[in-house]
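User: Show me sequence and structure for the first protein, then do the same for the second.

Assistant: Starting with the first protein.
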Amino acid sequence: MSEDAGKSATEQLLIHPSPPRERKNWCNWLNCSEDELEHAVTYVGHDPDNVRRFLRQAR
């Protein structure tokens, strides 16, 4: 989500919940809480598609 020039295109497509701004953007985009995002990333990794599927199945 971030357009950081220091990141490669692949890294920009992964969820990195560490920076608060990115965490908030991902939570808004995935319509989840910060706790849900952290839980999903812990279990399925940083790929947005896997996180989205995980969150969908958890609801």
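Switching to the second protein now.
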Amino acid sequence: MVDIFNKWKEKITQYVDLRFQLFKLEFIDRTSNVLSYILFTFAMLLFAMAILIFLGIGLGEWLCEVLNTRTGGFFATAGIYIILLLLMFALRKRLIRAFSGIFIRVLTENGEDDHDDDEKA
């Protein structure tokens, strides 16, 4: 009778240990997914900022030529940026929902979906 309890105890201990290892691996997987997504987003934002800066300088120089005034060209460029900022402010709820949806999708992705995509390809 004691032998049966020892076997059950061993099985339960193995089960708990395996569940804990599975939890750790899932945590590592989800954390690495979130961190890689954050790093990717940060890199894309850096590139977008560089592009916006150079586009702004180019647009300012072009508007300087069109308006024949350096100050007017760069103020017009600043006005375009202000309009874009106001547009983003007006659409902030939609943008926040979109980004939160992406973040939730990244957090709740199942690893099984990745394997299904590999098999279809």
